[in-house]
Amino acid sequence: MRRLLEGDITRILHKKIFYTAFIIAIAAGIAAITACLFSYQQTGYTFMYAAISCSSLTAGLMGLIIFMGIYVDEFRNMALSNAIGRGVSRNRIIIAKLLDCVILLLVSTIIYTVFLLICGKVTGTTMSPTESQAFWLYAFTGFYDIIGAICIAALFIFISGNISLGIFIYIGVNLIVPVALLLIDMVPALERFHLTRYSFSGLNEMAVAEILMGAHLRGALTLLVSGLIYIGGSTVLMLIIFRKKELEF
């Protein structure tokens, strides 16, 4: 397991696109906070809003790079077949890939969050306790959302062996599905169903709202349930499918 983790993480960290994407994210963060500083009255709320937006976009971008490096490249280069041929357990491969994504995205999120906080200090912005809580919660759920999207997209790659489908599912889960559900919720005949609440990001958004309103236990349980359904469910299905799947990729 350790060798699998070290091998994947080292390979990703040697990719120039990983650092290029992070530099772009930092530049976007500086631009957004600078625009916020000069276009509006700089308050804790405006800084928090700009920082949260940048954090979410960064998580999505870094998640895509990590997803492609951990899963797409492996299928394209038939590295999984080679690993299994050397006697590596299929279950270990699945778990190792997920842990790779968690470690890389978590470290990226922490570094970027610290960068945003430094920007806040430099601009003299002070957030209220509620704004600080919201900032950290959205930073976490941004990371959490992307891990869920990676698991769902990886599941479709393991089912179909089609890397293009996996990339489309990743983009769809992060962008197309939330927008589509939001538009559906605007239809008068359907708005009572609140379909946005049933997506992974929608459940996490609801959890953040519950925590900010003081329902900490309920919010934590909502986060746990969403993770069990989407991350846990996708991982279990991958373990089952990959165990029985012929090595055709």
Helix content: over 70%
The global form is globular
Distance between the termini: 22 Å
Mean pLDDT metric: 84
> What is the N-to-C order of secondary-structure elements (H for helix, E for strand)?
HHHHHHHHH
Task: Explain what you see.
There is one protein chain. This protein is an all-alpha fold and 249 residues long. It has one domain. The protein has helices at residues 2-13, 16-39, 44-76, 79-85, 90-122, 129-160, 163-185, 200-212, 216-244. Helix 5 runs antiparallel to helix 6 (129-160). The longest helix has 33 residues, at 44-76. The protein is globular. The mean pLDDT is 84.
List the topology elements:
Layout: H1 2-13, H2 16-39, H3 44-76, H4 79-85, H5 90-122, H6 129-160, H7 163-185, H8 200-212, H9 216-244
Helix pairs in contact: 1-5, 2-3, 2-5, 3-5, 3-6, 3-7, 5-6, 5-9, 6-7, 6-8, 6-9, 8-9
Question: What is this entry, summarized?
Answer:
The protein is mainly α and 249 residues long. It is built from nine helices and no strands. It starts with a helix and ends in a 5-residue tail after the last helix.
Entry keywords:
single chain, 9 helices, mainly alpha, 249 residues
